[in-house]
Amino acid sequence: MMNKDSELKDIAYKKIKLNEKYRFFNSNYLFSDNVIPFLKHNTIVERVKDRIRFSNGTSFLITGLRGVGKSTLIKRAINDLKDDHVICLPVFINLSNKIEYKNLLFEIIRRLYESIIDNRIIDKVNSTVSNEIVLAYSRTSMSIKSSNVVNGELELSASENFLLSNILLKNKLTQQAAEEASFLAYSTNDVEHDLLRIIDLLNNDKSIKIKTVIVFDELDKLTISENGSIYFEEILSKLKSIICCVNAVSIFIGGLDLYQKWNDDIAKINSLYDSIFSWHQYIPCIWDSTQALFNLFIDKEWIYEKIRDDFQFLCEDNYTNIIKPAFRAFLIYIIFRSKGIPRKIYSEFNNFIVWKNQKPYFQISENDVSRINIYSKIWRKISPIFEDKLYDTVIEMDLTYVTCFNILEYFFSHHSECFSLEDVQ
After folding, report:
1. How confident is the model at residue 5, as a pLDDT?
2. C-alpha span between 224 and 259 (Å, rounded)
3. I need a surface site. Which of 99, 277, 320, 420 has the fewest CB within 10 A?
């Protein structure tokens, strides 16, 4: 039987065919075309979809390491719901920096309106609902313009100015109401009332059933500092009447800092987090599902062991699901380099993609063979330390593995001489 070293050398510089639809992609890719595999998190996607679909109103917390695919997972779930004939109205709010509470409410209303337009819902709801939506959007926009004149603060973008002008021109009654309302003080309570009323009207419209989903993203960039964490809890308290309303789903996406805050806070009798979040889901790193990448390969004979001739009549093709040693070593290398982060897994895989006649191929060089073998041999030596350990939580396992890989990377980059297993321990 060939060993990993000889097998890897045997395939060096060979171009192995991939699915012709394969393309490089960025973090906005939702895996909806079933070409590139969505690694491991499908079960969590289904849980999120159920939470959205079968809730009249709730809020929940999604946490995980940066780059693990939290935002992509939520977008994928919302996109899948559309395919399931659930009219989902997503509102994405970037909360990576501090923002005054009233301006945050303005942002939610504006993004809600844009989502209504983008999803072509404005023409499907009855006139009362559409007028209320346009009026609230107009009032927030005019208040922002007024604030800009007085304080030199927020400005409407050119596209928003154009959108607002067209809205008001189409409906003179709404324009008049908005102008009259703009002379009144548009207090924080007024903004809250308008937002809750819009969500309520959308939910109760008999002509169409809509799920409003407000996603507060990029919280890991905010809560990384103590001041940011304090601000977030203040905003969370103020938002409670919005995010706990009966007709909307609110999703908060954060990192390990927020996970720790949530974990510490729910132990308290008077817990803020427990009073707001009905569910928490930690998104784990990926340590055992990277073999799904091999679904992209057309030439399966390079990847899998062949079935014995006397058993071929039992199978649809000539290959088992047993991965050949060379590609088991390749998977270890991918996991090692990516540290279980999906974005990095795809990035590392893309390093081995070449194009010929506008078609994608997988190819490794002799230098790649040497590097893959080194990583694979080291992991075989060190993995028993971590694989035999019993972990209390998934996050404990993630942090243990990530720390291990970071230490090994440190030795690779800082030690020109040999190092031992004892050095790593």
Report:
1. 57
2. 11
3. 420
